[in-house]
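Aim 2 progress update. The chain analyzed this quarter is reproduced below.
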Amino acid sequence: MDGRMNVVPEDVQVAAKPRRRTYTAEYKRRILKEADACATPGAVGALLRREGLYSSHLAVWRRARRRGELAALAPKRRGRKPTPVDPRGRKIAELERQLVQMTGRAERAQVLVELQKKVAELLGLPLESERA
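Predicted structure tokens:
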């Protein structure tokens, strides 16, 4: 042997990124109906094991059902809530754009007037305001 060891790499499998489970409102209603129909001891536990649920799911779903929140039974979107579009904000942005545009036009007009005054002065021509 030349001092080297034969190393066999392990068979490594990368697990897929876990996804958060979401349940439809219809599924939640069906499970609640089945859980309410369970009469024998341990039947609810068997239902939960079969479906892969926790008892806390039932508690939260029952509470939402009691409050009459049918929409609460639908899965909620995670993350930042979208901000409602303010029509005043859109109007303000449009007016600011118009202000910038008109200010630019006024500045160009002012430069042209100054240029006309200088040309008239160089040529010795009287301006309209001086004639009157």
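Residues 25-73 form one domain. The chain has a mean pLDDT of 84. These observations will guide the mutagenesis experiments scheduled for the next reporting period.
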